[in-house]
Amino acid sequence: MGILKLNKIRLGKFLIDESSPIIIIAEISDGHQGSLEHAKKLVDEAKVAGADIIKFQMHFPDEEMTKGIKMWAGDKDYQDILKKYWFSPEKHKAIFKYCLKKDIQYLCTPFSMKAIDFLNEMGVAGFKTGSGEVYNLPFQRKLARISASTGKPVFISTGMSSLNELEETVSIHKEEGSNFLLMNCTSEYPIKDYSHVRLSLIPFLREKFKVYVGQSDHTVDNVTSFAAIPLGAKVIEKHFTLDRKGTFPDDFMSLDPIMFRELVEGIRKIEEALKNKDKIIHSKEQEIRSWAFHSVVSNYDFKKGDIITLERVRTARPGSGIPSKYLDKRYSKQLIGKRVNKNISKNTVIKWEDID
Asked: Per residue in 97-130, pLDDT tens?
């Protein structure tokens, strides 16, 4: 893969470029259950757990869907569910200010044109779109135009879409000159078959569309989020809850504060592990190398003037003498046939100063 020069993305105080730290998003969805106080607790715990961003959803149920939609057989009307957990615009304004106070970035997913307008007027730093809106072209064009005129980035989830559909959406954002990032996503809640995660799409989407890519992860643990980092993911998004045994439908598949902290710590360790590409001997390695490497060792009681032959020496630790490579045919002419200038007992490390 060649080196791509991608457009940098700025979201509030966060910059996304080749060398920037991974951005970690705690996805609340509607886990606040309509309660501002519960939302504040989620913000507090997400901040303590190390999240960079906390993400909400903005619904205007009557605007975004018709009556009678059921997510699964036997479910209640989805519009009624949204109304039950509705987080009003006034509450969004309040939690937006609370996030500023707590120094954690507020991000929100709009699900209607009305929600886009409200969030933009509220002064959000960027937008995140759900996979259900990935091929809503009028919706995506509206966001693309806002992004082009304001610089606010759009994080686009890619679940449930074909490659052809995604190509059209990307073409609209490029046509309008928006600042966007793709989020690799599989819209299963939760993902039980790990082959459905398709982490290989991260480098594929980056190469194909020449944009940064993140991972919106719906598995119940941290494994695939960790694996996404060396594949090039610049953003990791995971659902977040205070209690996995809670009553909200997403709670069981979300990370609780302890698990989220483990996610953050793991990602930061992986970042450190990926930093250095130079094949050098570190100082701590040098300490071990001094005894772990092999030297030329006498296999025979040498008398002064004796000739070194392959039969009279072997390789053994430590590495403080003549390096063992001098018993390989590539280097052995520089050692074999030389005479020792002192008596050398059997099982002794031989050094260059011991030979003429």
From this structure: 999 999 999 999 999 999 999 999 999 999 999 9
63-97 as b/e, with b when 16 or more CB fall inside 10 Å? ebbeeeeeeeeeeebbbebbeebebeeebbeebbe
Rounded distance, CA 331 to CA 28, Å?
64
Structure tokens at 292: 């772990």
Q: How far apart are CA 26 and CA 46, in angstroms?
A: 7
Q: Output the six-digit token pair for 163.
A: 């490659």
Q: Are 181 and 211 in contact (CB under 8 A)?
A: yes
- Is the domain spanning 283-354 CATH 3.50.30.60? The answer is no
CATH 3.90.1210.10 location in the chain: 283-354
Domain with CATH 3.20.20.70 in the chain: 20-275
Q: Which of 221, 220, 181, 226 is nearest to 199 (CA)?
A: 226
Q: What's the whole-model pTM score?
A: 0.89
Question: Following DSSP, what letter does each residue of 261-328 receive, concatenated?
Answer: HHHHHHHHHHHHHHH-------HHHHHHHHHHS-EEEESS-BPTTPBP-GGGEEEES-SSSSBGGGGS
Q: Could you give the CA distance from residue 307 to residue 6 in angstroms, rounded to a whole number?
A: 64
Single-letter amino acid code for the residue at 185: C
The fold of 20-275 is: TIM Barrel (3.20.20)
> What amino acid occupies position 229?
I
